[in-house]
Amino acid sequence: MRRVTWILAIVMSAALLLAGCGKKDAGSVVKDLDHVIGKLESYQGTGRMVLQTGQEPQEYQVEVWYQQPHYYRISLTNEKKDITQVVLRNDDGVFVLTPHLHKSFRFQSDWPENQGQVYLFQSLAQSILLDTERQFTKEGNSFVFDVAANYANSGQMARQKIWLDQKSLAPQKVEVSDSSSNVLVKLDFTQFEFGKKLEKDSFDMQRNMTSWDLKSLDKDAPVSGAATEPSAGAASPDGKAPAAGKDTPASAQAGAAGKDAAAGTPASGASAGAAADGGKAPAASPGKAAAADGSAKAPAAATGSGGAAADAGKAPAASGASAGGAASAGGTGDKQPAPAAAGTAATGAAGADNKAAANSSAGFGLIEPSYMPKGVAQQDIRDVKLGENTGIMVRYQGTYNYTLLEVAPQTQTVSVLPGDIVDLGYTLGVVTGDEKKTLTWTYEGIEFRLATADLPHDELVKIAQSVAEEAGK
């Protein structure tokens, strides 16, 4: 009897010991996670990410590759807008690539060490390891951590829940919320594999740019930045002007005319006599050139027309400019309107004239942000020349002062300035500079540069995000 009792006691003790070993608490999981990070060599993952940071949710297909010690490749595809961007880090620096536009932006940065990303395993693991007030639960086959969100470029993100596979500790799901528990970012991993063997040239900039050309269904897309540009006003075989789509080169957009012009009607309806309009945009004519979006919003300056110069010369002066400062080569000077204060009807008329002239010379329609910080007003719109490219610059003044430059560059954009990546929801941008910051991003073939010396980071992002909302209208 005594022997049976001892046997039962031993069996029960062993069962309790095994049961105890099978239970993981927060401390033991954190210890295992630290071990995984310490021996991490590579991984590859895919997933679906939804951002709620703007007025409308933005959905991305995400693919992330990592190879030690510091090679990263993140592909973000917005299928609705048919846009793919790639973030690379290799021995040459950090790149933001827009392959279908053959644009790249290179900058110096410690990214992502200095800036966490929700789709990177290292960022998720570090947020768990560093939060001593972490909350821990279990759901099905997942360990769930509720920790502080540590994302440098977003003050809205306060907390995040991270689901990890109980066996491998691979990430399964992430939800990032604001201080009111509203979910701003949701990422569901559909696949994640540690120890994935990746070739070093998988992180090469040129390979990632050219591989897009090989995979693209658009066989006529320009390769390696060599865009095929039809001459100004060239018509398609059916007699219509080429459509100005988002992938149409800027020079083709500038030359795209209305259907009457394509049919042979001269586009010089705004002749020298049309300048006697008092500085207003040329009157509509049967040959009026179309705007870049295919509509007839902004009259294009006709070749050989004397009215364009006269119009530009009679545009009202911007707020704060002297009366004499409004004169130009095409203006008479004696009929110039007096400078008007911001917010008056005269300033509004000046802005309309400046906008029409800038649209014409830039070859694409101006896209203005729908959001302006309180106490800020638009000052003026002017066209600018950047090397071989013509663009539009809009100035804003008030509580904060900033400028927005829009240009459709035909050459690859390269920079080596120190910078940080900013996720705008619809695209990726790069912030460069310290005292004076510039946020640069590309959207639908247009490169935007938002520059300021006093605009807070959150306001900078809001303005940039509102550009896409206007472009989609």
From TrEMBL:
Entry's SUPFAM superfamilies? Prokaryotic lipoproteins and lipoprotein localization factors
Keyword match Signal: yes
State the UniProt keywords alphabetically.
Signal
* Domain of life, per lineage: Bacteria
| Signal peptide feature range | 1-19
Q: Bias regions of kind Low complexity — which residues?
A: 250-326
Q: Where is this region: Disordered?
A: 220-342
Answer yes or no on keyword Disulfide bond: no
Q: What name does UniProt use for this protein?
A: DUF4367 domain-containing protein
Species per Swiss-Prot/TrEMBL record? Paenibacillus chitinolyticus
